[in-house]
Write a structure and sequence with these properties.
13-stranded antiparallel beta sheet, 5 helices, 47% strand
């Protein structure tokens, strides 16, 4: 029985390695709901709870993605509120401009919200890093200085981890609790790390696809 188990594991690993990059991308997109359906996604609004590692007090999170490179993150902690906004090459934190590593981290976060569609839109630039321990790794170049590497489980075709790199910095997010919303697959739990140190765990209560824009507040009379 033990030999059969080992043989089965070897066959699974061999099958994963034999899959072409096109096959991997196709299977991931199919599992996540299909390229056609994802191409219709123009915005995402995610709400949930952030449990930070380096500070006390959980935060209520609202994360709104409105297109490639456009992300608004609001976290309401017991003692303060943090608002991060990135739009292309411009980013702010609580209304103040951010640059350098802080901006790179925000750009990577915005890019992660474009998964799995980035596999399709960046197909020509993808780098197949092969299979190790049964997990397929794919690197997505985002710019001259930013990359995002995905770890894909060929048994489920779920993206289990993304590793963003920028100017010597590394930001890792592990994904779990996969659920379907409107036919599309999303991870409802994220565990983040920066430079190998845990930063926060995030659990989402709801994910809304193509939510109506929030109307501006009425003008003061």
């Amino acid at each position: 029985m033990r030999n059969l188990t080992i043989l089965a594991a070897l066959l699974v690993a061999a099958s994963a390695s034999a899959q072409s990059l096109d096959d991997v991308v196709s299977n991931v997109m199919k599992e996540y709901g299909g390229k056609a359906a994802w191409s219709k996604v123009t915005s995402l609004r995610e709400t949930g709870t952030v449990v930070p590692v380096m500070r006390k007090g959980d935060g209520k999170l609202t994360r709104t993605w409105t297109g490639p490179g456009k992300l608004n993150v609001e976290i309401i902690y017991p003692t303060e509120t943090e608002v991060r906004i990135v739009d292309g090459d411009h980013g702010t934190r609580n209304g103040k401009d951010v640059t350098g590593p802080s901006l790179d981290a925000m750009k990577l976060q915005a890019a992660r919200l474009e998964l799995p569609m980035l596999l399709a839109t960046k197909r020509a630039a993808l780098k197949d890093l092969g299979t190790k321990d049964g997990i397929r790794a794919i690197e997505i170049p985002l710019s001259e200085t930013l990359t995002l590497t995905l770890n894909v489980d060929p048994k489920t075709w779920h993206i289990l981890r993304s590793t963003g790199k920028a100017s010597g910095l590394e930001f890792v997010v592990d994904y779990s609790d996969f659920r379907r919303v409107g036919g599309l697959l999303f991870p409802f739990a994220e565990a983040g790390m920066a430079m190998g140190m845990p930063t926060a765990n995030t659990k989402f209560d709801a994910i809304v696809i193509n939510a109506p824009a929030t109307p501006p507040p009425p003008a003061a009379k």
